[in-house]
């Protein structure tokens, strides 16, 4: 703040001196108005009182600093001269608007005051100048109301009562039906309300009106609402708000007037054509209110060819200046165009990609800038089916859940995995509805077009599996009551059955009744171009989480540079495998366990061989068995009986084993490397399968690069012990297969237990690599079970205790501290330790940015998020230098 | 290592120069021998080769450093001169023992070699000198065997075979029956074995024997076993082992010889009287082997009054020197006393306290030293019933579990809480046996003398409740299969029913068949004296975890200086309360919930009033409701039906609510402050009850000092929000009660979520105090569910992955890092933030020491551990300065 600033910055034809002054001094709106003015756009002139004055106002005990009003008066004179109008003039009065405007857009601060400058005399003057009594008195009564309400704190209701009396007198219903005479009476009534509640007359002096309004704007900086907003958003170090005083223009001054909003390019497709709508003889609020139907700007030449041409010029000027598609507001007052607002325009993912590429072609931006211009998540729309916007807008929303996996799905309800498979095979499009899904449901999930669960969150089983497949999923829709037996759901009073169709919006989490029209994704050449640029600038690698050759191939097509997480447990759920898995679990001694594992070995080997082939010459991180064994046993008596038949034992044996394995908190139970400690033979089978698969690949000239990852390590001793076992098994397998070549196998661990991060220096001594399992790390750092978080997380988000679901975006403050500590401590032991992330956060842009900043080597995410992660990684590299 | 050391230190009458040399140079044994010699005790002379020589041996490529053997020879000459004996002498040969001895006692290193110096000539000499052929050849054959085995690595079995042949020849069974002639032949046979396996003759030159033995000792420093032992124990920075060479003495040279072990005071009672036993004409190993029954030392005057008197002198010399009760070994060779060993003697808790106090009285130590002399956990024996040692030794141990709460309990088995209560009321002594206990079992646990569970660990519900009451508990005894219906348990093949008696040793975790005799605790005046000293020197306060006025009073009697954790949930389980609690949980809207809570209010207020009264003028930390609501609902259909009857609703409603509240991982679910966020009315009721109780106390001149603790905070926003609610409720309650005085109520939080520790700087802004909940913090930092840890923790301990159960002793490396971070970050925000610990670790000495070192203000533990914590805190203060 060393630089000396003026207190008031003027913008207009006379002079514009706020350009280049920081947003922190003149606010966002002030800078924008100055900027537009300075590039020659027809902006109604005015001036900005700086945020430093606001700070001075507070330092001064909530009084305007000395001399300010004199300076305001002088500036008003300049404005009067430029416009040829005068404050309070009986013929051509100057009217202004007063608005707040801090450096950051901030709801909760003061509303706008319009028509400031009117008083009894000026209103007559306005009536004369516009030749419209009704218009003038309507403007006046609005000023008294707004001023009374916003500046003096009179309840809006008080004015309503007065208005109702006038309407009753004239026997009309709508405000607009009150004649000019009635509005004149209303102004008097409003002044009486004003006097009654303030004890003073409504200030006739426009300068007094202005001074009070400026104070009110400054005062609104510290209302409870504004303070709380800043607190929640973490907005700090702002001086205060600026005040913008700007000449009024009116689009409702007759058929030669009008108002409109437009985009400089099509926000849906990105096509370079002027796109928007306008209304003749109307104010801006009429366009927004939607009472009258506006016309497309393409039709404007029929109404006023010159203005249309001028607007096309404005479009070019703005795009040349901002090098970005703009969203503008304009008003035409008696045939003259005024620009009121311009800002970067919102657009679809498709448009974002096209516009970014086009702007490069037009030499307005460079490749790096283009990469920064596309929000990574917007790519989802290019990769997954979406709803037709119009149809979506009219859809009947039944309820909302968590937007667990994006996309659009339409289908009939099925209530079990078997049913979903059968009906899908019979040709139906199916939405699988479950309380929560488990590995047993995987086949039914695969058969369904979308998945709906009533419990669980963004990292529940359903969500993780669905995202992996790019399949739409709404999770934890608590309003859905499922009656599996009756094959019915109840949702907010409606009952739906197997024949009913619903539509799921995985992007918003909404559930809709009936079939909403969808559209398929289209991948353009622009998309490929943008991805090429992203790959050019990013420094982090992007891998994928994939458990099958099919998923691996898909991810590689999406640009994955290896597998960051291959979960081996999913491989055991197919019917010809699960039986051996279960036999293994039921085994009472090691030899029996080994016999069952021997039968699983060929399956595992085949899976790995396929995956290594799909990922030829790319690293594949294989996580050894992770879930607790009870997850593989059936819990229902019927299923237990069936299993007993298959295995040739008693259902009671299965129940007994199931009870013995039961855990109060399986998340914190006997799983991960703890299984390998008690049952080393499971680890041996898996490592043998990996090694044999790698040997087979070698024979086929396929370069397998497995990275064996030991999960859930909490102390270095677990890793040192198991590492030795892995090494011994690799050596034994090579010897048994008489393989004498070199295999590229490394051994590392997942950092997902807080203690592993805290002691990463010790752990790193035994690890070739680290991979942060931020799902579990988040669970344990917060103490949130991701399966149960639905019980309170919505309240937490609603009450602003959490800004986002920490399972969706990495909590950089808490969990991130452990990640950073893990990286630093790990590399303090091994300077070049390879470190990645394989939690669900690996495909979330803000988390990818964090990963870049703490120095990870790669992120890994589900196949469909690979392009998103590539783009996010590029943005992180460009933004963080 | 700047100081230049000798390579060999002699001890004997000639000279003793190792005194004052560091243990790290001469080893523990070497220093001890030098020390005893230097204070004039009759120690067989000898010398110590330093650890530096060991290091040099390894540096030298496993060769003895140059000139060492020459130096050894010279030192042997000194020894020969002092004793008037000669190596290999045909009339009076010098015999020595060779032993390893590092700075730290270390199993896994070399065994002792005895009788070194014997060869064919010297054996004849020994036979002459002792006039005992058999004795001499027995010594010789032992040397060849030991030397062959220990130094040359010949399997012991090889010698056995040769011995068996000789025994067969002489047709005897026992070694001792072989005549001198046979032993002579055996020596020849042993030499043949030696030659066969080493290819060399047994070395006749004593110096060669000695040189090889010294190398063998050095070599044993780096055997796998020794290396692994040091690795596990974290023993680092040692140079190597020293070698001790010492003249042999024999207690088996006739009726004027003997050997014994003794304590300088009674190790059971601490009484200052010489205590021990001896055997005439025997070697030390005979006393240990227990073949002959030794006589008490009190009877020694009958055998040799002079020696007894000399021993009493030794006792005084040793105690004056070491200022500590000693455990000694001695041998009398032909009427001459030799001291072989002295060390600090093991003793009971009772003895430890008495000896410490007596030594102060005798001016041998000061108060601080006395405080350090008693292991805090030894106090348990003074506070709880224990088994009669003799009876305990003979007990039939059925199985082992986790030593969850110390003490001794004997009773008949009961299988449900109701049964336990009924039979106890009918006069039986009951052991309650449950798979695991839940709050519903509390009344039955209270009725039982001891608790046995088959799952769960040291911080399971059963363990925590039992410890709080000082009641014996063995938890997680996995071998116990409970059939609740049949009222039977199966334990390792035995089946026991309701009429069978078992005994539980809560100190070791063992379960014994039948009634083992117990003894009641006795509190002596010495105990009070020691506690007074402890309180004088400690700087940390000691509070207690107590939930009732009764426990509070008990804890105060034990010296508690307030309550560090008052759990409020236990208060809801009594029959007249649980019904309202359940009605609250079943309520579908806030008004119904409030109505039920209103009925709970008077109960809570009464509890708090009682506790505040018992803790008059001491702080009472009240934790707001913590467990998930489903813990309060019955899970069995019968109980659900009963509850439905009581509440006048349908069992289906209860089942439905129970299902809705079910959580996959309740530990990480909707509990702690998360309940207050969703149901603020629960918090309001509790705070209102606390405030009203404090107001009532004020009227009775009782000074209530409640500290309201908000549990499970993970982000500062939870605390800032709830703090405001607590403050508002206090204010509203004061207003409603028209109380205008000052209440001493503070508001803080439990730090038990890793994220709270990581962000303690933010959390501290809203907290008056922190209390570390290290139970949950351990669960989340390790990712261990304390209810399920029994599935793998035993394997972890057995395989040395963990040294101790982290729920018993705080894991200083991992969890401790978070505690330290929490303290530092918290105090970086609030310099004087009061910080305590209320996890189960608060009463565990090594954890208390840690708490002292990181600067906690207090520890809190169950009432029976308060004296232990007081003593541990004093030791921490004294040791850490």
Q: Give the N-to-C terminal Cα separation of chain A.
A: 26 Å
Placed side by side, the strands forming the largest sheet of chain A appear as 12-22-21-14-15-16-17-13
Q: Tally the helices of chain A: what do you get?
A: 34
Give the radius of gyration of chain A: 34 Å
* DSSP summary, beta strand count of chain A: 31
Shape, per Cα inertia axes of chain A: elongated
Strand content of chain A: 15-25%
Tell me the structural class of chain A.
alpha/beta
Largest sheet of chain A: 8 strands, mixed
User: Most extensive interface, residues per chain?
Assistant: A-B, 47 and 47 residues
Helicity of chain A, in percent? 40-55%
* Spans of at least 5 consecutive residues with low confidence of chain A: none
Description:
- The structure is a homodimer of 881-residue chains.
- The first copy, chain A, is α/β, with parallel strands linked by helices.
- Helices cover 46% and strands 17% of the residues of chain A.
- In chain A, α4 packs antiparallel against α5 (133-151), α12 (349-361) packs antiparallel against α13 (367-373) and α20 runs parallel beside α22 (590-614).
- Chain A is elongated, with a radius of gyration of 34 Å.
- Chains A and B meet through α25, α27, α28, α30 and α32 of A and α25, α27, α28, α30 and α32 of B.
């Amino acid at each position: 703040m060393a630089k000396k600033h003026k207190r008031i910055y003027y913008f207009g034809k006379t002079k514009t001196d706020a350009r280049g002054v920081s947003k922190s001094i003149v606010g966002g709106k002030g800078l924008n108005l100055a900027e537009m003015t300075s590039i020659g756009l027809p902006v109604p002139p005015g001036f900005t009182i700086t945020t430093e004055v606001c700070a001075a106002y507070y330092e001064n005990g909530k009084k305007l600093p000395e001399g300010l009003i004199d300076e305001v008066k002088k500036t008003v004179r300049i404005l009067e001269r430029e416009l040829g109008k005068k404050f309070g003039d009986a013929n051509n009065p100057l009217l202004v608007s007063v608005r707040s405007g801090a450096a950051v857009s901030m709801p909760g601060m003061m509303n706008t005051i319009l028509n400031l400058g009117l008083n009894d005399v000026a209103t007559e003057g306005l009536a004369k100048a516009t030749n419209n009594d009704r218009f003038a008195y309507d403007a006046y009564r609005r000023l008294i109301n707004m001023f009374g309400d916003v500046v003096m704190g009179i309840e809006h209701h008080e004015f309503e009562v007065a208005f109702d009396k006038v309407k009753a007198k004239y026997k009309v219903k709508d405000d607009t039906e009150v004649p000019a005479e009635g509005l004149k009476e209303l102004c008097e009534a409003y002044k009486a309300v004003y006097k009654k509640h303030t004890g003073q007359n409504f200030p006739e002096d426009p300068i007094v009106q202005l001074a009070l309004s400026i104070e009110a704007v400054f005062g609104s900086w510290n209302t409870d609402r504004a303070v709380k907003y800043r607190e929640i958003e973490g907005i700090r170090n702002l001086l205060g708000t600026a005040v913008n005083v700007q000449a009024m223009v009116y689009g409702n001054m007759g058929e030669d007037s009008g108002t409109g909003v437009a985009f400089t390019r099509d926000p849906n497709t990105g096509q370079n054509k002027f796109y928007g709508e306008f209304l003749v003889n109307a104010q801006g609020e009429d366009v927004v209110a939607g009472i009258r139907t506006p016309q497309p700007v393409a039709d404007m030449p029929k109404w006023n060819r010159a203005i249309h041409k001028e607007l096309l010029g404005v479009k070019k000027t703005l795009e040349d200046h901002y090098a970005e598609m703009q969203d503008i507001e304009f008003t035409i007052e008696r045939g003259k165009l005024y620009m009121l607002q311009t800002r970067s325009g919102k657009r679809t993912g498709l448009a974002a990609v096209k516009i970014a590429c086009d702007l490069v072609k037009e030499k307005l931006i460079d490749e790096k800038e283009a990469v920064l211009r596309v929000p990574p998540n917007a790519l989802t729309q290019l990769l997954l089916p979406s709803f037709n916007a119009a149809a979506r807008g009219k859809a009947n929303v039944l309820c909302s859940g968590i937007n667990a996996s994006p996309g659009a799905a339409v289908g009939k309800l099925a209530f079990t995995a078997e049913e979903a498979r059968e009906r899908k095979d019979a040709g139906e499009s199916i939405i699988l509805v479950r309380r929560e899904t488990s590995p047993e449901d995987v086949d039914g999930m695969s058969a369904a077009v979308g998945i709906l669960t009533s419990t669980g969150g963004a990292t529940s089983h359903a969500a993780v599996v669905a995202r992996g497949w790019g399949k739409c999923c709404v999770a934890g829709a608590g309003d859905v009551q499922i009656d599996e037996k009756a094959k019915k759901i109840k949702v907010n009073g409606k009952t739906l059955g197997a024949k009913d169709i619903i539509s799921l919006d995985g992007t918003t989490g909404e559930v809709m009744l009936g079939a909403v029209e969808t559209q398929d994704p289209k991948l353009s050449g622009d998309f490929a171009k943008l991805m090429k640029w992203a790959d050019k600038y990013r420094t982090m690698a992007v891998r994928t989480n994939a458990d099958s050759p099919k998923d691996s191939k898909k991810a590689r097509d999406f640009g994955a540079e290896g597998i960051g997480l291959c979960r081996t447990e999913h491989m055991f759920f197919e019917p010809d495998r699960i039986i051996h898995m279960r036999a293994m679990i039921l085994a009472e001694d090691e030899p029996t366990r080994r016999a069952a594992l021997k039968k699983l070995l060929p399956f595992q080997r085949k899976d790995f061989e396929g995956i290594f082939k799909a990922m030829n010459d790319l690293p594949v991180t294989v996580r050894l068995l992770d879930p607790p064994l009870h997850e593989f046993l059936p819990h229902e008596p019927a299923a237990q009986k069936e299993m007993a038949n298959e295995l040739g034992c008693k259902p009671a044996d299965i129940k007994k084993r199931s009870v013995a394995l039961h855990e109060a908190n399986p998340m914190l139970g006997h799983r991960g490397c703890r299984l390998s400690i008690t049952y080393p033979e499971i680890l041996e089978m898996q490592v043998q399968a990996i090694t044999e698969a790698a040997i087979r690949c070698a024979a086929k000239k396929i370069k397998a690069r497995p990275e064996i990852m030991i999960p859930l390590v909490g102390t270095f001793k677990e890793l040192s012990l198991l590492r030795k076992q892995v090494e011994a098994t690799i050596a034994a397998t090579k010897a048994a297969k008489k393989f004498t070549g070199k295999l590229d196998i490394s051994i590392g661990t997942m950092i997902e237990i807080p203690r592993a991060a805290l002691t990463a220096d010790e752990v790193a001594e035994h690890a070739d690599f680290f991979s942060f399992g931020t799902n579990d790390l988040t669970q344990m750092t917060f103490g949130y079970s991701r399966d149960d978080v639905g019980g309170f997380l919505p309240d937490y988000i609603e009450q602003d205790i959490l800004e986002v679901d920490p399972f969706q975006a990495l909590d950089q403050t808490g969990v991130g501290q452990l990640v950073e500590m893990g990286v630093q401590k790990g590399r303090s032991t091994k300077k070049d330790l390879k470190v990645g992330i394989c939690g669900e956060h690996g495909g979330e842009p803000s988390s990818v940015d964090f990963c870049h900043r703490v120095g990870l080597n790669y992120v890994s995410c589900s196949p469909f998020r690979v392009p998103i992660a590539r783009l996010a990684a590029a943005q992180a590299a460009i933004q963080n230098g």
